[in-house]
Amino acid sequence: MANPASLSMITPHPGADEARRRGLRRMRTVAVALLAFAAVVYVATLGRAGGWEWVNAGAEASMVGAIADWFAVTALFKHPLGLPIPHTALVSKRKDELGKGLEEFVGENFLQEDIIRERVGAAAISARIGDWLCDPANARRVVDEVSDVAAIGLDRVRDEHIADLVTDAFVPRFREEPIAPVLGTLLSELVRDDLHHGVVDLALDEMHRWLMHNGDTFVEVLSERAPWWAPPRLNEAVTHRLHLEALRWVADIRDTPDHHARAALDSMLTQLAQDLLTDPLTQERAERFKERLLDHPQLVTTAISLWKALRSALLTSMRDREGAVRRRLLVELNDFAGRLSTDAELREKLDTAAADVAVFVVSRYGPELTAVITHTIERWDGKEAARRIELHVGRDLQFIRINGTIVGGLVGVLIHAASVLVH
Q1: Average confidence (pLDDT) over 377-381
Q2: For the CA atoms of the chain, what is the radius of gyration?
Q3: Comparison of pLDDT for 100 and 40, the residue scoring more
Q4: Whole-angstrom Cα distance, residue 30 to residue 193?
Q5: pLDDT digits (tens, 9 = 90+) for 211-224
Q6: Is the pLDDT of residue 6 over 60?
Q7: 194 in the Ramachandran plot: left (φ > 0), alpha (ψ -120 to 50) or beta?
Q8: Lowest mean pLDDT: which of 61-65, 179-183, 233-237?
Q9: Percent of the residues in the chain that have a pLDDT greater than 90, as a whole number
Q10: What's the helix, strand, coil split of the chain in %, to 5?
Q11: Nearest to 336, CA basis, from 149, 174, 134, 88
Q12: Is 372 left (phi over 0), alpha (psi -120 to 50) or beta?
């Protein structure tokens, strides 16, 4: 009794199956018609002399070939004439062994590194992608699809998800990880590569711009902190002078790459990085600062607020077909497509990377992939599997019967000729 679950593993396609069934019936009709024709010719020429003997011998051999090939083809899927002849109905009886053999065949002949690399290289994946993306409609379609999917994903992330991520994942991990070595190493790399100079230049530009446009505020703040006994005119002169000197000093630092203030900042950052890596007191202070930051009740609220602002900005831009994000994605995609079309070295690197990925997947999961063949066939019902396989390949197998009929007739004539020559 077949397991109902096993039958459900073979999914029929009514339209395609009906077309295959019609093709199978047509070829069976042709094969049977040839056999019947050979039988009629054999009976009609039986006992006749002369040239009819040759025709009779050919017809006889045609019938033998047709019947033998009919038996061979039928024995694959069922018992011929319903008789339980040994080694017939092979597919239904030995489907598990056939599935295992197919699994081994696929693994040995298809899932090999040399074959995979050859096929991936022959596919010229990067060149095809480049040619496809050079069409503006295709590039626009990719950007639209990516933006829509990203917008859907962002929209599904809730505030509680971010809160859980911060409290359950980030905070415990940050507590376990000493922050001083990380900060020290990062700061050392920044100073060594002069990466902080860009930040310093930006800060100086903004500071100078603020001092330039907020002189009254600067003077007012200093005036509030002036001694009560100082004359107002003196306070005003001093604060305006301080504002002017501050402007000059900031501009001087901004415009002088080797200014002593910059050198002092570099020295301070270098020493701080060294202390974070080696000085226990500095490391302890960094850890205490980290703990205060992680324990602050505003941490989760701030993280959620930052996320909401970022998500809102991204969603607004992604949902706008002419938004900044989509425009930028389109520009980058067009540039990438152009490089793929003109840069042979880039195409080679990408194709090699694709081959490496394919080889890695096959080498790591190849046995599991091929095992799907065996596991799937094992779950099939034997008789149903035989019917389905016959439906797919039976039409082509009928050519064996047709060829057997024709070739058998020719061989019969040749054997008759040999008999005549011998006698």
Answers
A1: 72
A2: 42
A3: 40
A4: 82
A5: 888 888 877 777 77
A6: no
A7: left
A8: 233-237
A9: 8
A10: 85, 0, 15
A11: 134
A12: alpha
Polymer length in residues for the chain: 423
Q: How confident is the model at residue 281 (pLDDT cuts 50, 70, 90)?
A: very high
* Nearest by Cα to 374 from 66, 28, 106, 55: 106
- Which positions ≥6 away from 92 have C-beta within 8 Å? 77, 78, 382, 383, 385, 386
Give dist(CA 324, CA 317) in Å, integer: 6
Instruction: Quote the tokens at residue 225.
Output: 């902190």
Residue 12 — pLDDT band, cuts 50, 70, 90?
low
According to the model, what pLDDT value does residue 63 have?
A: 92
Structure tokens at 39: 């039988």
The dihedral region occupied by 47, where left means phi > 0, alpha psi between -120 and 50, and beta the remainder, is left
pLDDT at 67 over 70: yes
In sequence order, what DSSP letters do the residues of 132-180 get, joined into one string? HHTSHHHHHHHHHHHHHHHHHHHHH--HHHHHHHIIIIIHHHHHHS-HH
DSSP state for residue 2 in the 8-state scheme: -
Residue 140, token pair as written in the block:
């626009």
357-364: Cβ within 8 A, 24+ apart: 358/116, 358/117, 358/120, 359/113, 359/116, 359/117, 362/111, 362/113, 362/116, 363/113
State both tokens at 288: 């205490």
> Which H helix or E strand runs over 238?
helix 232-255
SS3 category, 319: helix
User: DSSP 3-state assignment of 337?
Assistant: helix
Counting residues of the chain whose pLDDT is more than 70, the rounded percentage is 94
- Mean of the per-residue pLDDT values of the chain: 83
Q: DSSP letters along 53-96, please?
A: HHHHHHHHHHHHHHHHHHHHHHHHHS-GGG---TT-SHHHHSHH
Residue 60 CA to residue 413 CA, distance in Å, equals: 9
Candidate from 69-78, 145-154, 407-416 with smallest mean pLDDT: 69-78
